[in-house]
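Fill in residues.
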């Protein structure tokens, strides 16, 4: 969106069968017009770095998937086999002089150059000439300008360099992975291809050594920012506005600190701090420094509320859970927030605490806003998501979606049930006669993700399974967001018992008043943390769960990354018991129910070793199980045919083994 709020650019494909995104633009008072999808004679082969970036961002589309623009939105840049520039007025696209492996372009404020990452360095192009910034070549294991693995995967920081507002300097992250363990991702279906090396910081092992340097674009690094890396291991974010701000955390994540850095001397001063005895969270869109106000989001455990803070003092009321910051104006802060965990509203929180809602209740809203104009996305439980531009003069423009309808009615029934009042959704086949059906638990169940939302797309796959003959139950138990800090922190030191107990207890409470839920035939399916939960369920509660499909499960938390795992379980050297009580391998001998394990062999997030080591432990214990390896598939399954067939295989496996449970 342009700074003045008069122009909006967005991505949209041409229809439900087109996976290629194109750039579209809407000017105030005008119809939307298409610019380019990146294939207009300029697209190139995706580089390994760009593929990795898309994996971290969970981007599955083709064409233009991310872009940057100048403040007026007159020029747009995107990377695709080099850097490409779009003239928004004419739609003309030209390729800039740039390296073929270019990604993450960022235009120079008040200048005519574009900085971007190539290989292990940052380069500059003025359109006709391209050159590397001097002094950024330190040899093997060191890169400049790119986010390290845990920053991109867990912290939400996908970039590693930032222009100063006047365009004269760059803050560039230097990442040294020489002490990080080397892991190898093989392609068993391609014995002629060498395994791919990745530097993976598993729990308890070394992280990348990250430093930040103020850099002259023509002369190279000038001064290192002293942010006390020995005390604060994680560089979580960098914001360069009225001042240069760094967000940092110690390794145990029990504090989040905002530092102001002097770009001339590199010295830092603490300007904000939030602490918690368990862990502190990171939040999208913060911090914001404007008009002498430092705006952050932090948990207020005294009133069990995630609140907006201005200069360290809470301004949003107790009970209103802040999700993300959208914009700041003279009167207050625009953000998304919720009172009931299953929905979210766009609200304005005045600096005196007054709250005004700007989206419909009972929906799940997200938004962007500039110059008084808001682009509002509102999802509903049963209909398509609606995107609306609300211009600053009050006029509205609807952005139409070209996506297909599911082909069936998605009809989640929402409940609050069980001893811990968990949110749940129950989905039944259309026109069902009320007779008992086999139950399919369909959770994610872990931190940082909700499944029970007032958003149709969140339930479409669950409804598909319901149409196959299941009563599908989706439960958000302890550890999931939206309920407040205390509910999320119930999984501290134990990612197994609380999440599993909530699935079983809530299901039993629902079934006590719903005869359609046949508790003698209960299956479970899940992916990633949901896959861990699915395997955990049949290993530890075979009395209640009778078959499981576990996709890409974490089976041994010592094999997952530092920033995520240690936040909940601590360091394995000092808290070994936390890892032992969550380890699936130790439970392998307990398997007595059907279990299908599915894993992409190219997964560099939850590596295939998780499934393979559990399978080995099950075999050693003499426990029958099924393993489905997916060649060339990562943690996502973007291949349409693979994703569709996986649904059919899961359905058939669960139906077969729930048909005659004993």
């Amino acid at each position: 969106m342009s700074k003045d709020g008069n122009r909006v650019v967005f991505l949209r494909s041409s229809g439900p069968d087109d996976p290629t995104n194109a750039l579209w633009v809407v000017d105030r008072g005008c119809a939307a017009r298409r610019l380019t999808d990146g294939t207009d004679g300029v697209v190139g082969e995706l580089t390994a770095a760009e593929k990795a970036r898309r994996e971290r961002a969970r981007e599955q589309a083709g064409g233009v998937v991310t872009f940057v623009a100048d403040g007026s939105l007159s020029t747009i840049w995107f990377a695709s086999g080099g850097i490409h520039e779009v003239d928004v007025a004419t739609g003309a696209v030209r390729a800039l002089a740039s390296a073929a492996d270019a990604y993450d372009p960022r235009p120079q404020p008040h200048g005519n150059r574009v900085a971007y990452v190539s290989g292990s360095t940052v380069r500059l192009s003025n359109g006709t000439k391209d050159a590397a910034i001097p002094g950024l070549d330190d040899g093997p294991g060191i890169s400049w300008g790119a986010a390290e693995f845990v920053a991109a995967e867990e912290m939400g920081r996908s970039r590693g360099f930032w222009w100063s507002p006047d365009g004269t300097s760059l803050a560039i992250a230097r990442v040294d992975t020489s002490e990080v363990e080397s892991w190898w991702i093989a392609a068993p279906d391609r014995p002629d291809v060498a395994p791919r090396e990745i530097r993976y910081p598993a729990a308890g092992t070394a992280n990348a050594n990250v430093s930040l340097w103020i850099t002259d674009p023509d002369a190279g690094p000038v001064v290192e920012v002293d942010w006390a890396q020995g005390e604060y291991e994680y560089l979580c974010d960098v914001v360069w506005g009225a001042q240069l701000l760094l967000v940092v955390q110690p390794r145990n994540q029990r504090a989040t600190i905002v530092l102001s850095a002097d770009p001339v001397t590199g010295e830092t001063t603490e300007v904000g701090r939030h602490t918690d005895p368990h862990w502190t969270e990171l939040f999208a869109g913060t911090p914001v420094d404007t008009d002498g106000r430092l705006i952050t989001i932090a948990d207020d455990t005294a009133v069990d509320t995630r609140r907006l803070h201005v200069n360290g003092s809470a301004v949003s009321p107790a009970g209103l859970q802040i999700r993300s910051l959208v914009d700041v104006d003279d009167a207050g802060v625009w953000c998304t927030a919720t009172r009931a965990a299953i929905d979210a509203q766009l609200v304005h929180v005045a600096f005196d605490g007054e709250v005004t809602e700007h989206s419909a209740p009972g929906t799940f809203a997200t938004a962007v806003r500039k110059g008084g104009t808001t682009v509002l996305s509102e999802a509903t439980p049963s209909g398509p998501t609606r995107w609306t531009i609300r211009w600053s003069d009050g006029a509205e423009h609807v952005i139409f979606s070209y996506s297909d309808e599911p082909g069936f009615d998605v009809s989640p029934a929402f409940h609050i049930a069980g001893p811990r009042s968990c949110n749940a959704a129950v989905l039944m086949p259309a026109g069902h006669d009320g007779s008992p059906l086999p139950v399919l638990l369909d959770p994610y169940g872990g931190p940082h993700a909700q499944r029970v939302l007032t958003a149709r797309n969140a339930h479409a796959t669950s409804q598909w399974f319901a149409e196959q003959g299941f009563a599908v139950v989706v439960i958000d138990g302890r550890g999931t967001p939206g309920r407040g800090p205390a509910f999320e922190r119930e999984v501290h030191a134990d990612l197994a018992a609380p999440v599993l107990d909530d699935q079983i207890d809530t299901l039993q409470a629902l079934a006590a008043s719903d005869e359609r839920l046949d508790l003698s035939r209960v299956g479970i399916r899940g992916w990633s943390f949901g896959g861990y939960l699915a395997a955990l369920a049949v290993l530890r509660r075979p009395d209640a769960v009778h078959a499981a499909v576990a996709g890409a499960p974490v089976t041994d938390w010592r094999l997952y990354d530092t920033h995520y795992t240690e936040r909940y379980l601590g360091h394995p050297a000092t808290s070994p018991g936390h890892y032992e009580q969550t380890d699936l391998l130790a439970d392998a001998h307990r398997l007595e129910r059907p279990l299908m394990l599915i894993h992409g062999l190219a997964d560099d997030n939850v590596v295939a070793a998780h499934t393979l080591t559990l399978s080995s432990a099950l075999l050693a214990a003499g426990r029958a199980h099924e393993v489905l390896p997916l060649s060339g598939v990562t943690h996502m399954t973007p291949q349409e045919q693979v994703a569709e067939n996986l649904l059919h295989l899961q359905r058939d496996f669960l139906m077969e083994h729930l048909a005659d449970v004993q």
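Residues 413-658 form a domain with the Rossmann fold fold (CATH 3.40.50.1820).
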